[in-house]
Amino acid sequence: MSYCVNCGVELAPCERVCPLCGVEVANPRQPYDPNAPKPFPARLDIFAPTDNRGFLSLIITIVLSLPAAICLACDVAYTHGAGWSMLVIGAMAMLWVFIVPALYIRRHAVLVLGVLDTAALWGYLWIVEHFAAKGTWLMQLALPLVVLVDILFVIDYFLMTKVVFARLKRAALAVATVPFFLVGLECCLDWYLDGRISLSWSFLVSVPCLLFALLLLVLNRRERFKKEMHKRLHM
Amino acid sequence: MAPKNEKAAGQPEWYRLDNSALIYPAVMRRNWAAMFRVSVTLRETIDPDVLQCALEATVRRIPTFRLSLHRGLFWYYLDLNKHMPRVEPDVLNPCKKIDKEENDGYCFRVRYYRERIALELFHSISDGTGAMVFLKTLAARYLTLQGHPIPAGDGVLDCGAEPRPEEMEDSHTKYAHFQHIESRKETAAYHPAMTREPVHTLNIVTGRMPVEQVHERAKALGVSINEYLAGALCFTFCRLQKRELEGKAGKRKKPKPVKISVPINMRSFYPSETVRNFSLFVNPGVDPSYGDYSFEETVLQIHHFMRLRLNEKYLNAVLSANVGNQKNTAARLAPLFLKNWAMDIGYRLYGESRYTVALSNLGVMKTPAAMAPFVQRFDFIMGPPRTNTHGATAVSWDGTLNLTVASVVEETEAERLLFTELVRRGIHVTVESNRNPY
Ligand SMILES: [Zn+2]
Q: CB within 10 Å: which end of chain A, N or C, has fewer?
């Protein structure tokens, strides 16, 4: 028989370490026997994941196609196919692409989801340009902004998945991305409106964001704070 | 062979939930239900096919287990199950909630591992004593089928006989005499702040100790074994709370009372033979606001509290209050979802928040003399309530007391403080666990 040198309790022959304190059995006369029968088998009984994604997608599809169908019918019946219903149909289609694939795509395929969502957004903007507000804004303002968001998203995603980041560091990274977006946004707006770039307001918002990111990074170093946050906020 | 669904004449088609059972479906959650488990370890490896035969005979004999839970408009009810339950291999994490689709709607499982037969049960079907009757009848039937005939008696029912109405009765309504109705007002108790494990996890640590040594220590203080263990548990959580408060710098350090919920088997007060629920709870404990109670003082506080409460008249007043709520006309007319909502609030106010940890002790097991040589040990495990972190259980057999602490948290501090305290008091404790598997 072996006793835990730390707790004084005798350990059943199946225990490799003391279940109370984790100290390993160190008995040269009777070393731990890995073949001793364990009190419980290894099989784990876990909750079956409830899969109602099919049902959920069906509901979402019906809910989204309803306004689209009504608008199309009204468009054809009262305004002789003027095309305004395309805005609603496009919006619903875009929402559908945003929501339904997200139910099915696993976490590691977030980039696929990103491509799909960008395409959907782009398609919708094109519909708006084509049927409602013709102009240069699509190519000169919307396209650069969509590309900017995509680039920032890909960079963040790469950093978060390929480089091992702790929880708070991820939050810091997300906050640190905001200034880049703001600067980009101001550039695009200035270029579209005035044809030249002079940065002003985006700096004012960027400074607090960067400071906040820095604060999160500092807090990340405090082990106890991290544990407390995890205990209180874990999901 | 007779059809599997045959039902003895005069046996009810369905059952109301008994008074203790009402609360459990109402407070159930997607990932949590009030489950506990009793198991018996024999001396030879269990044969699943023989166990299946024994199980089928046992559910015919004890029809109150052969039920599935359904929602009525006003109450839940238990309906006779058309299928036969199936035995299954044991798992690392017992007492997981039984999903509706799982198990053909049964509210219990029978699991086997090496020499052990385990019964896991949803609390609406029965309490620890009733579960033990089922388990012992099952084990006796199993041994009989293996060629070791076991006679009935000492909590083993005869599988050849018909079920008797006394076994199926709701003893709460039968014995509540409404002489007085006790309204219990209790304060919130301390709950340790610890790190929760994933939902399906149940960490089990069992300390095995000689009954004689515990009895000696208890006798020295003039208390029962149950009171001694409750005292040790209470003392443990007082120390945990003290440490927790010392860790919080700057805050006002107002400790909460540490209370142990001790189930009382009401069959010891009334001649009830029911295999359904028939137990009540009392919550003894100490309030560290008055100062730090020593081990002996804690044990004595628990002892005196229990001696004050454990008499037929007081317990009947509590029983009458519970049954009275059930019989209340307004309560009966309320649709089920309203009742569930009200009971859930009641449970939050008067249930698990009022105690730190539950300690359920089934005492020394009895079996027919012919069965005893085939039994190595009995075990008892209780999954902690929804917001509690630990559940403690005890059962004794053959001079050994198995004190099991089941927890849903990562930390092992409570178990460590409890068992090292017992060791310090000269009790030889052997621990085993499912914490470091494979
Ligand atoms: Zn140890």
A: C
